[in-house]
Amino acid sequence: MPSVIVSSTAARFRQNIITANVQLTADEPLESGGDGAGLAPFEFILAGLGACTAMTVKMYAERKGWPLTHVVVELMHQKVNDRHQLLAQLHLKGDLTQDQQQRLLEIADRCPVHRLLTSEIEIQTSLV
Length: 128
Prior knowledge:
Elements: E1 5-8, E2 15-18, E3 23-26, H1 41-64, E4 68-80, E5 83-94, H2 98-108, H3 112-117
Antiparallel strand pairs: 1-2, 2-3, 4-5
Helix pairs in contact: 1-2
Organism: Stenomitos frigidus ULC18
InterPro entries: KH_dom-like_a/b (IPR015946), OsmC/Ohr_fam (IPR003718), OsmC/Ohrsf (IPR036102)
Protein name: Osmotically inducible protein OsmC
């Protein structure tokens, strides 16, 4: 099971994030009182979804032998009527047919992070 450790710093909102192989920084942007020294929490969610989407699409195209040369996923978070929306735009490069592009669009919504975010999630928080 993947594990992530997040710990506060002396800076107002800055957080150190440690995974098995990578160290990252989270922070709020300047306009929200942070230093803008790292991704904001919602940006991490968008980045995870975008990375998973791109990896899933690329893996599927490789397995099918399709000429996909580049994938870009643009994501945005917005809140409308107290409901969060994640908007994703998929840019595919390569000599793909319309049918192949449509199939890759369908596959994009099947990445594991997309499935997690669209499922019923239970979060258990405890004191240690």
